[in-house]
Amino acid sequence: MEVQNKKWDMKKFSEMRQEVLNQWPTGKEVDFEEAVRYHQNLPKNQIMTNKLREAATKNNTLIQPRAGVALLDEHIELLKFLRQKGKADVLPTTIDSYTRQNRYEEAEKGIKESEKAGRSLLNGFPAVNYGVKKCRKVIESVDCPVQVRHGTPDARLLAEITLAGGFTDFEGGGISYNVPYAKKISIEQSIYYWQYVDRLVGIYEENGISLNREPFGPLTGTLVPPCISHSIGIIEGLLAAEQGVRNITLGYGQCGNLIQDVAAVETLKELSAEYLKDYDVMLTTAFHQWMGGFPQDEAQAFGVISWGAATAALSKATKVIVKTPHEAFGVPTKEANAEGLRATRQVINMLKDQRMISSQELEKEKEIIKRETRQILSKVYELGEGDWAKGAVRAFEAGVLDVPFAPSQFNAGKILPARDNSGAVRFLNFGSIPFDDKIKEFHRRKLAERAKAENREVSFQMVIDDIYAIGQGMLVGRMDSKIA
Ligand code: 8ZB
Hints:
Blueprint: H1 10-21, H2 32-40, H3 48-58, E1 62-64, H4 72-84, E2 91-94, H5 97-100, H6 104-117, H7 127-140, E3 146-149, H8 156-164, E4 169-171, H9 187-206, E5 212-214, H10 226-242, E6 247-253, H11 258-275, E7 282-288, H12 298-315, E8 319-321, H13 334-351, H14 360-383, H15 388-398, E9 416-419, E10 425-429, H16 437-454, H17 460-469
Parallel strand pairs: 1-8, 2-3, 3-4, 4-5, 6-7, 7-8
Antiparallel strand pairs: 9-10
Helix pairs in contact: 4-7, 4-13, 7-8, 8-9, 10-11, 10-14, 11-12, 11-14, 12-13, 14-15
The chain binds ligand 8ZB.
Ligand 8ZB binds near residues 67, 68, 94, 124 and 332.
């Protein structure tokens, strides 16, 4: 198989569909025509694209938690709680790890054991096992749009069931839900699986049902330079649009330096509009509060959460994905989850009418991110001989696309990021990223400034120190100044 960025024809899609729907008994509940009618009757306020369009028009930033538990009633109660006590604008359903790996037998056991124990023993909601009707129970219990959030290289059946089940937004992509999540699945394979998901969404669109797709911006979540996540997000956006997707939210994970982060969200908007100009798509943005290691202390965690909220508001991201004070420990209680939302809401409200002053520094940072992203994407396009899917596969082989700290054996893993003296994420190792000398020189100079300030050499130790810094109460990993 060589994957191509070309819209699938109905024959190819329908043949695969039979196979997909047979993967688990609940696949039989999917009746596409009936699902279209179900969506036609959904209240307007439960359609994600409506909420996103309204927020984008008014320059508002929506707040969204992550949440998912094993038992249906408990999951419904959780979502209602986050809406009522956390004032979430839009809700998620986070899928458990077994389902993400297509291990539905084990998910089934997880449900049974959770029922026995009377509490969730899975780390998310096993939507495939529950099937279409039970997904609709979730949707009908709340009064806002609900998105599927997961981490699944092969999400074909999950998409069939949840979209037929009334979810109006589906996270992920062929690169962003493979490279950070899987070791052994080729990029080609996961792009192919995700073309199916995108084509499915495209077919809903062709039937008048507006759905949203959101590539997973943060990737590994730790010190990912903006140009890397921008390049991958834009490629996934292009692949989705080719299959008929009309509404795309591109994501970015907070790095921690305000100017770099605002520059990142602004350039994500500008670059994606530029690269997707030939497609009729609505583009919006999702800002993820810090995705790396968190402090254990809840008060410190609220500091991190609030700084993410401030950055989201100042960058005018369409949506912010909210962390909780339990982040360092795992799946949060619903109370902690609502607290993260309320802290975020407070800051967003206080900043919504303020703007970042356009400064030379901000403009310079934007220019750098744009040049870097364009240089990467040009090379991807060249390697693919004009085909973004082929280009993506070959770019990973060549290390032209390279995600730091990713488990995938199809990722070169040669680049190394480190913070500069103001905490912006720079490149310590370029691997095979195709930057020109001017950009390489810029990164070297920025890291040299930090080295001088800390009176040490630029080295791998900085990378390690930076990985742990926020969890230890800092942004830049200067080993002399931990507070925790
Ligand atoms: C890649 C996403 C990781 C983030 C959170 C983690 C982390 C995962 C759940 C969840 C609430 C869940 N996360 N699963 N949050 N409920 N079932 O996603 O804590 O922040």
